Amino acid sequence: MTMHADQVDVTSEIVAALIQEQFPHWSGRAIQPLSTTGTVHAIFRIGDDLSARFPLRPAAADEVLAVLEREALASAELAQVSRFPVPEPVALGKPGAGYPMPWSVQTWLPGTIALDADPSGSDAFAEDLAAFIASLRDTETRGRIFDGDNRGGVLAHHDDWMAQCFEESAGLLDVRPLRRLWVHFRELPRTSADVMSHGDLIPGNVLVAGDRLGGVLDTGGFGPADPALDLVSAWHLLRPGPRDVLRRALGCDDLEWERGKAWAFEQAMGLVWYYTETNPPMSRMGRRTLDRILGSMD
After folding, report:
1. Class of CATH domain 12-107
2. Does the pLDDT at position 4 exceed 80?
């Protein structure tokens, strides 16, 4: 089952043809489609050291290219400041072989995503996660500010989306307390300037090695945002003890911590209903995050 009604189909045969046409020096490498919880790209492993990412939702080729170029720059910048392994951009592909949009190639990172190797009870993992977030926060924004796309700006700007989420979730969740919680979250004031953030620290974007952070994926959203945005990881990835370790390591005050909870809530509400049938692990992750948030409000 596809995740989106307008999803573009990508097969190993299409990928092989694109590589043969555009990057013949990689032809002959094994092509392996990856079964992931990702919702934006189809991902294929190319040989031992590369991965190719294909946007799933149709858009004009020039618009997609602009996004991929921006993501490549962001990923390269993040790679310069991260003390943990992250994928690095290698090449951009063009439409062809039945696939209508540009696509990207980056380095492959081995490891197990946190959705499959749950690190939620590890203090050491929480310390590593805090170190990663701190290294991004220490990066100069160079005068850049949040671009207004997706999460990371003004909580109340998401009211329309949240109204849709509450409506769609009526048969799945007890919506009344969730509505009350959003009334509280949307009023939380913003007092700190933007810092550089990963932007989507969910289990599918985090690699685990033992009980430590092994690497971070999907780095193309690296950019300036609310300092609380990367704190979504506290709720998506950690149980109460390690969550406290993360908070202490980052020195979060009450307001910043609560805003991080608000961003995690906004994200989780959308995951539960949108992916109930098409991406059950992502939907379950949203439910777990909501349970953790509700449990923290007692």
Report:
1. alpha beta
2. no
